[in-house]
Write a structure and sequence with these properties.
The structure is a homotrimer. By secondary structure, chain A is of the alpha/beta class. The first copy, chain A, contains five helices and 39 strands.
């Protein structure tokens, strides 16, 4: 762990200091837990009050605030600056250099690059190709003919089925499955016949796959996760689906097969997306939404069925008013019937109708 | 990979050819990616336009179309014919014949049938019985006393807890768990006491379990997945639940304990079904539905709470109209109050009510 | 398996017998499957009719019933009594005493307590500390520096990432993942940069984690699962979230990061809870609910968005009436327009509005 002054950190992230630039910073912490030697940050306005009570050594903010007593590091994007400082002070997980274990199972025809760590009981099947500087954790399974670039990390018990292709710097977390057969059956006279799934899964550079995910291989083409896309835990991706670059899919999302998703999309937790549709670029989908139609570029949607977000927020929050609305309609109907009868007007809305 | 003429394929699937029956077919592909030597198919009307632009060597369709330029294979059920041709041309995954690895852990009291492949670091515990011609992939775990029929495939890191029973031709995908304890606790004075789960899981013939699933064992009886039922990725089945034959459960479905589901049901992705209910035969449940009551045979339901599908489609899509409906009610109330006051009628619906 | 008389069982659970106290009981079963020698119970009123047809040797009930023909064991809390009897008659899973396998991989710097079973191909990394009387099943992975108390059970293929801390009597089911990196990225100019996740996961005493779960480690603090909390299969817990003591989280729940949940909460299947909120003590959340706001103590909520349960049951079940309500509004509008026109009153609600 490194120790830096606030001034050094500001220089590192291209920010400015308000207060004592010689403040010593050893680590990062949240506003309410930080103490002397810790730097904290404000990225979510929900926590703005904690700026005034924090005991942090310094805070990263987007603009200097007179009412904050601790030294401030002013950065255009405080969360990005925080990330940079986290990497500088704490670094990413260090992987023990163990080389290739004699208790790993590596097929004679497999190729393993230089500087790889292949742990005990990891299995690499025939004709698999592992790039340089990869970490394959215990009990991970690399299927026949898998191709993996450089600097990949495959955590324990992750499974890559035969033929899958990984770019560079791909991370697959524990117990994730990549390339299992797509859920494809032809149902004939009530019996479901398995269709061979001839595609593979392609994980492009810098993809991260969460723990316990399942990314199905395609039936006729490949399932593709685009460059830099990050996928949370227990996400299910259907066969032949293509997800663009730099998307975020939060935990427990399900995307059915043969759907196309553009670049820079953010998909909230537990969202479900049907198969065979097209979702554009820069689309945001709120948690638990159910998406059943194409979505054009730059839309924000939520709800099940998903609709434009501003409308959805009002509409879905109004479900709780339904009993009251229904009562109002009944009251109106009584009144209108009375009025119509009094005036001899034939009326359409009747109490009978509203009660059926 | 086999090569066939279109005529041979038509004969194989019991169909007819329109166009050149000598067209050589090497593989199958989608309409928009297929080229010379590929056969494609139309099963989803969404793709009918692609019939006119496809560069496929031939297409499988349900009736001859004059406006399609490439040779056609006419089949009663194009998707079933496509499946048959996929199996013929591509075949299912080939499993390397490796026999029983000396790096597998097989208890002395376990029995392994003939022609099995037991891979490195697979574990077979005491008194387990494995049928003939089974494939147990690396790091799979077969618990004590598990009984498995013939021709089963257990992929890497799948776990079968003690005592589970598998029929013939059962497939369990990677990282799936079968037979873990049911989520059963007796809560007493605020503390949850674990109840022994004495049942097991029974997977009948031809069942396929998706990657990352969890199929709980029963508390007092068995959890049963009926013959030919196919379960997608990350599906959770509760303790003591019984699912009939030839069902399809798409990814991320959750079925709570002690529920009974009939035969030939299709349950969409992310559906949740409560415990202790009965679902009939031939029931279809739309994606993300929430099922809280019994469903009789042959029903199609969707929505949360789930209702009959035709009604649900109209009703759930009308949630987006709630703000407008509420405004209309308010406007009506203003009008009706005015009318009532003018005519000296006592009115039930008042602006005051609708605003509360 | 033990054999007891009904009288002995009544004494054991502090209950009373109505009928023959010498009835011999060998095991427990459900009302409709129980036969001679079986004891059954009534805890769910749904099954009250089966009391009259059961062939059980005896039944556990909360009060003596004249119309029940079989001997009765009267207990204040029949389900708790049933649990006690299940443990007495059947016991929990017995774990074969195998000691430390020579085919396990245990780092020289790891410490393993007394009376532990460490199975084949289990992996224990550097500086991990395992308490006494723990069972580590095949292919489980215990990361560097993990600390585990006494009497823990880690099932096959479960993965504990580096540094996680487990109390006593913790159970982690197969294929569960504990301590993977939180889903934390700083997005800058469209690219997602991974933030080091410096917290760990703490599982306090008596926690049980279901099969296929993913419990993320925290970014800056720890993710904590409180004492006695039981988590079902495939539950996703976000980074830095703190769940109190004695909660139940049913299968497929998702809780985003930095959320706090109190003690004694019950969270139904497939519930989604957003990040950065506070949920009080004794809160109950119905299956599939979507929770986006703080919930105070003792509330029962359901629906998406979640609202107070009594209101939610009425409101959500009324969605199916939306088409009818809309038609009623249209009819009312026609009537009111007619009335207004007749009386020369300017009207607010117009047919034109309701159709837009």
């Amino acid at each position: 762990m490194e120790t830096k002054t606030l001034g050094e950190l500001a220089e590192y992230v291209g920010g400015k200091v308000t207060g004592d630039a010689n403040t010593v910073i050893k680590s990062a912490s949240t506003l309410n837990r930080a103490g002397q030697g810790d730097i904290s940050f404000l990225a979510n306005p929900r926590y703005v009050k904690q700026l005034h009570t924090t005991k942090a050594g310094a805070v990263i903010v987007d603009k200097a605030r007179d009412d904050v007593k601790v030294p401030q590091l002013i950065a255009d994007d405080p969360y990005y600056a925080f990330m940079q400082i986290m990497v500088l002070l704490h670094g990413h997980r260090e992987h023990k250099k163990i080389g290739v274990s004699t208790h790993a199972s590596i097929a004679d025809t497999a190729k393993v690059g230089t500087d790889c760590d292949i742990h005990d009981y990891a299995v690499i099947m025939d004709n698999a190709v592992i790039g340089n500087n990869c970490r394959i954790y215990p009990n991970a399974y690399i299927g026949e003919g898998v191709q993996m670039g450089d600097n990949c990390i495959i955590y324990s018990n992750a499974v890559l089925y035969d033929g899958c292709k990984l770019g560079n710097r791909v991370i697959v977390n524990a117990n994730a499955t990549v390339g299992e057969d797509g859920f494809g059956y032809a149902s004939y006279k009530g019996v479901h016949h398995k269709i061979p799934q001839t595609g593979v899964v392609v994980l492009e550079d810098d993809v991260e796959i969460g723990a316990g995910c399942g990314i199905e291989r395609g039936t006729l083409g490949d399932t593709v996760i685009g460059q830099g896309t990050k996928i949370g835990d227990m996400v299910a991706i259907g066969h032949g689906t293509k997800i663009g670059a730099h998307c975020l899919l939060v935990a427990q999302v399900g995307v059915a097969g043969s759907t196309t998703i553009g670049n820079h999309c953010v998909i909230g937790g537990q969202v479900g997306i049907v198969g065979h549709i097209n979702i554009g670029n820069n689309v945001m989908i709120g948690a638990q939404a159910g998406v059943i139609n194409d979505i054009p570029d730059n839309k924000i949607v939520l709800g099940a069925p998903a609709i434009e977000a501003r409308q959805a927020k009002r509409a879905y929050s109004m479900i709780q008013n339904l009993p009251e609305m229904r009562q109002n309609i009944r009251n109106l109907t009584v009144d209108v019937e009375k009025l119509c009868k009094m005036l001899g007007v034939e009326n359409e809305a009747t109490e009978k109708q509203t009660k059926k």
